[in-house]
Amino acid sequence: MAIGLNEFLVVSAILFALGIFAIVTRKNAIMVLMGLELILNSANLNFVAFACFGGMNIEGHIAALFVMILAAAEAAVALAIVLNIYQNYKHVNVDEVDSLKD
Question: Residue 41: its pLDDT value, please?
Protein backbone atom coordinates (compact mmCIF):
# COMPACT_ATOMS: atom_id res chain seq x y z
CA MET A 1 0.00 0.00 0.00
CA ALA A 2 1.65 3.17 -1.22
CA ILE A 3 1.00 6.69 -0.09
CA GLY A 4 -0.45 8.73 -2.93
CA LEU A 5 -1.07 12.35 -3.70
CA ASN A 6 -4.50 12.33 -2.03
CA GLU A 7 -3.01 11.52 1.38
CA PHE A 8 -0.56 14.40 1.11
CA LEU A 9 -3.35 16.77 0.10
CA VAL A 10 -5.53 15.67 3.04
CA VAL A 11 -2.70 16.26 5.51
CA SER A 12 -2.00 19.62 3.91
CA ALA A 13 -5.67 20.61 4.11
CA ILE A 14 -5.75 19.65 7.80
CA LEU A 15 -2.63 21.72 8.48
CA PHE A 16 -4.12 24.67 6.60
CA ALA A 17 -7.41 24.43 8.50
CA LEU A 18 -5.59 24.25 11.84
CA GLY A 19 -3.52 27.29 10.88
CA ILE A 20 -6.59 29.31 9.93
CA PHE A 21 -8.29 28.24 13.15
CA ALA A 22 -5.25 29.31 15.19
CA ILE A 23 -5.09 32.71 13.49
CA VAL A 24 -8.80 33.42 13.89
CA THR A 25 -9.27 32.24 17.47
CA ARG A 26 -6.07 33.29 19.24
CA LYS A 27 -5.40 36.67 20.79
CA ASN A 28 -1.76 36.04 21.60
CA ALA A 29 0.55 37.24 18.84
CA ILE A 30 2.91 34.27 19.26
CA MET A 31 0.02 31.84 18.69
CA VAL A 32 -1.05 33.80 15.60
CA LEU A 33 2.50 33.47 14.24
CA MET A 34 2.43 29.73 14.93
CA GLY A 35 -0.81 29.49 12.95
CA LEU A 36 0.84 31.33 10.08
CA GLU A 37 3.73 28.87 10.18
CA LEU A 38 1.23 25.99 9.93
CA ILE A 39 -0.25 27.56 6.81
CA LEU A 40 3.20 27.98 5.26
CA ASN A 41 4.05 24.36 6.08
CA SER A 42 0.88 23.18 4.38
CA ALA A 43 1.90 25.15 1.28
CA ASN A 44 5.34 23.53 1.39
CA LEU A 45 3.78 20.10 1.62
CA ASN A 46 1.66 20.86 -1.45
CA PHE A 47 4.66 22.12 -3.42
CA VAL A 48 6.72 19.02 -2.68
CA ALA A 49 3.83 16.59 -3.19
CA PHE A 50 2.91 18.06 -6.57
CA ALA A 51 6.58 18.09 -7.56
CA CYS A 52 6.98 14.41 -6.67
CA PHE A 53 3.73 13.15 -8.16
CA GLY A 54 3.72 15.49 -11.14
CA GLY A 55 6.86 14.29 -12.87
CA MET A 56 9.61 14.96 -10.27
CA ASN A 57 10.12 18.55 -11.32
CA ILE A 58 12.62 20.57 -9.33
CA GLU A 59 10.47 23.72 -9.44
CA GLY A 60 8.25 22.52 -6.59
CA HIS A 61 11.24 21.87 -4.38
CA ILE A 62 12.71 25.26 -5.19
CA ALA A 63 9.39 26.92 -4.38
CA ALA A 64 9.27 25.06 -1.06
CA LEU A 65 12.81 26.20 -0.27
CA PHE A 66 11.83 29.79 -1.11
CA VAL A 67 8.81 29.53 1.24
CA MET A 68 11.08 28.24 4.02
CA ILE A 69 13.42 31.20 3.57
CA LEU A 70 10.45 33.56 3.53
CA ALA A 71 9.06 31.96 6.70
CA ALA A 72 12.39 32.37 8.51
CA ALA A 73 12.57 36.04 7.57
CA GLU A 74 8.93 36.56 8.55
CA ALA A 75 9.50 34.90 11.91
CA ALA A 76 12.53 37.08 12.67
CA VAL A 77 10.75 40.33 11.79
CA ALA A 78 7.51 39.33 13.50
CA LEU A 79 9.26 38.28 16.70
CA ALA A 80 11.11 41.60 16.78
CA ILE A 81 7.76 43.39 16.47
CA VAL A 82 6.25 41.22 19.21
CA LEU A 83 9.17 41.98 21.53
CA ASN A 84 8.74 45.70 20.87
CA ILE A 85 5.01 45.44 21.62
CA TYR A 86 5.77 43.60 24.85
CA GLN A 87 8.26 46.25 25.94
CA ASN A 88 5.71 49.02 25.38
CA TYR A 89 2.48 47.36 26.57
CA LYS A 90 3.63 44.45 28.82
CA HIS A 91 1.40 42.01 26.88
CA VAL A 92 1.16 40.62 23.37
CA ASN A 93 -2.61 40.45 22.87
CA VAL A 94 -3.31 41.54 19.33
CA ASP A 95 -6.82 42.77 20.17
CA GLU A 96 -5.57 45.29 22.71
CA VAL A 97 -2.76 46.79 20.65
CA ASP A 98 -4.62 49.34 18.55
CA SER A 99 -2.65 52.48 19.39
CA LEU A 100 0.37 51.54 17.25
CA LYS A 101 -0.97 53.59 14.35
CA ASP A 102 -0.73 56.81 16.39
Answer: 93
